[in-house]
Amino acid sequence: IKNLKKYFPIRTPLGRTRSYVKAVDDVSFTLFEGETYGLVGESGCGKSTTGRTILRLLEPTAGECLLDQQDIFQMNQKELRDVRKRIQMVFQDPYSALNPKKRIGKTLEESLAIHRISSKKVRTELVMELLHKVGFQKSQYYRYPHEFSGGQRQRIGLARALILNPKIVICDEPVSALDVSIQSQVINLLEEVQEEFKLTYLFVAHDLSVVRHISDRVGVMYLGHIIEEAKTDDLYKDPLHPYTKALISAVPIADPKQKRERIALKGEIPSPINPPSGCVFHTRCPYVMERCKTDIPALETKENGHRVACHLYDDM
Ligand code: SF4
Ligand code: MG
Q: What range(s) does the ABC transporter domain occupy (predicted)?
């Protein structure tokens, strides 16, 4: 992903564009084959929007998204259909991705039929096999979505995503709507199928503990920008950006002997319609300096591929 921007126009009643919500503003990152890249941040930071533009469920305003040297953002509908076989999405609310009036087996089969994959008989077998892989009995093929619990539906959502044998799965808050006890089951299943199907994940979530558990690398978003990115351990043990430090300091720790100072941030996240000049975090940053108000800090690489966008590290 290179220099991705997604601006949503705000129009006057007469249809003239008044201003823009800058949901994603110049985001660049690389997703390596086989890894899980966690995109984390508070709600409204642009992480879901980033995930959705990759599949062009939302049209990007600017930027490139290269898959094997081909820019998804420049593809026509036919090329895009092929890409959608290779990149699939798992949503926060799996129910919305399932047709309530259809038996789930039928819903899963339909994606195969749309892409003209094999015969009816083979399709049914494929679906049964996949349902079995995500922990269902074959008889559940004939059930309707409302007959399943939230966690079960998310497993069906995952099966739906896997049916076309994708390489990449974009998981948008896949466990945030589930009870904590069910979350770990779904996370474990995600990890199992990743191994078995050799998947690459873009894992979008606001829960730092979940992201830490599943990700190899993590990008932290704030107001439409990636402000820090690192290998998971480096990011959680040694966060550099003041915003990341504050986020991590707010996560409860299990070990009471381990002391950690809670960094409380002042104020609310500013509006993405009128984001702050310079560093977008400057209105809330405990370390703000004069230049932060005017100069946009670039996301620069420090040690170990650790990237940070903050003037505190300008000379390092
Ligand atoms: Fe804080 Fe300045 Fe760093 Fe922004 S650039 S995070 S305002 S110190
Ligand atoms: Mg979201």
A: 1-248
